[in-house]
Amino acid sequence: MRAIGNVVAKFIWMSVFLLSVSLVAQSPQPAPAKQKNSSYMPVVDTEDFATVHARMSSAKAGVMKRQMDLLSARYDLSNRPASGVAMDRTKSVQDGVRVKLRSGVTWAQLTSMTAEEIRNKNLFPEGFLPLPHANHPEGGMVFPNFEIQELLKQEQRDLTRFDLEFDLPEHFLPEFPPAIYLTTRPDLGDVSKGQLVTIANFFDLFNGILNPKQIEGLRLLLTPFPQQQFNQTDDRRSEKPSRGVACLDCHANGGSNGAFHLVGDIRPQEFRHRIETPALRGVNIQRLFGSQRALKTVEDFTEFEQRAAYFDGDPVIATKKGVNVLERGSQVHFMAEFQELLDFPPAPKLGWDGKLDPARATPAEMHGQEVFFGKGQCSSCHQPPYYTDNTMHNLQAERFYQQHMVNGMMMAADGPIKTFPLRGIKDTPPYLHDGRLLTLDDTVEYFNLILGRNLTDQEKKDLVAFLRAL
Questions:
Q1: CB of 449 closer than 8 Å to CB of 352
Q2: Which residue from 194, 316, 419, 427 has the least number of CB within 10 angstroms?
Q3: Which residues lie below 8 Å from residue 417, measured CB to CB, with a gap of 6+?
Q4: Is residue 253 part of a domain?
């Protein structure tokens, strides 16, 4: 009887257990916790490198198609060089307005409307909106192919990303490699001798021209250090572990090659701005550094880039990937001293005051200068001789459009933007802090609309001619 009782008890216990499991399975399960927004990137990798590489490589074609479709919808990307206008040496400047208008709208109609009307009717040109990164949710430094190939040739260092490619066509980028002009030796002209200056050739090019401090500063500017996407951890975007990125990988020859990434000082990710590499030419006359950061010295800029911008403003992840902490009193100072030697290109039509010499300028250029200082009011911010006021201005372009998401980026306010010098402007396309304006013609149309200047077609054309002479 006891044995039978034990069997019955076990049967009852098992029935109760199975019933409870069934009830739990049938009861509503709590929704998974929503991931909390954080200012910090994850430090511990949740996927191994092979898995990440396979996933992101397979997605690359789709990512790039989405970005190229965006560019084609916004711009005329054809190669249309301006007649008789070259950059540093022989590369042609691109001609004409490339931003596409909404169907059935003309520039004259658009400029006759108020910002509110344009916003409410959704007529603001898409090419005037903020430009997303080629893969905005991912971000990071992206280099044009000509820079990648030359560094491979000279240094056997590969800046190719397995997850995405450069997006803008090369004919909209600066001449490569840019020329180098020195404030201390204008008699030498282009001291680069047509070469991309790298760690492999800098000493031969500059020994006897620079002093020892400046040579050491240049060496440091050419030395690759670990960076967010190019490092020796599994959390990288290069096929093989990488020595990293050098300052002059973006600021090629102290100029620009059009490389881009995202600013490190905005969160969350969709509100971060694409940043196109500006030239370092003329930093000796500038008092603000970083298009929107308002750093006060070139030393601050140099140190900030190494400590923070290289790692998306996250010192936690920087420690993991190998941050390079530069010594302020020598290394940062030496780097800054070289950067402050970089001069603007020659402008043979300008006098000592930065204005055109009537004996050398064309009638169109002279009329463009008149518009620049008169009806266009460009000189209220871009003051000669270097055409900057060394401050920042908020254009409030968001007056013209509704905030919305495009390719992972929020079309939101740009905020205050540094007044970039206009000396040598034809040599450093594309324009604005994110490179959304492909030509000087686009730039004139943008400011004409945003600032309500109501310039005629001839005034705009001549203003472009003047800008090309600076």
A1: no
A2: 194
A3: 291, 292, 392, 393, 394, 395, 432, 433
A4: yes
Q: Would you say residue 16 lies in a domain?
A: no
Q: Which two tokens stand for residue 178?
A: 């840019």
- Beta carbons of 97 and 441 less than 8 angstroms apart: yes
pLDDT in the model for residue 360: 98
How do residues 30-87 score in pLDDT, each as one tens digit?
555 566 788 888 889 999 999 999 999 999 999 999 999 999 999 999 999 999 999 9
Enter the tokens of residue 52: 């990440």
Look up residue 324 and give its amino acid. N
Angle at CA of residue 348, ends 282 and 443, nearest 5°: 60
- Say what the pTM is: 0.92
The token pair at 201 is 């050739």
Q: Which residues span the domain enclosing 408?
A: 59-469
The C-alpha atoms of residue 405 and residue 271 are separated, in whole angstroms, by 10
Burial (CB count within 10 angstroms: exposed 0-12, middle 13-18, buried 19+), residue 13: exposed
Question: How many domains in the chain?
Answer: 1
Query: Residue 28: inside a domain, yes or no?
Result: no
Residue 458 included in any domain: yes
The pLDDT of residue 16 is 40
Single-letter amino acid, residue 23:
L
Q: How many residues are there in the chain? A: 470
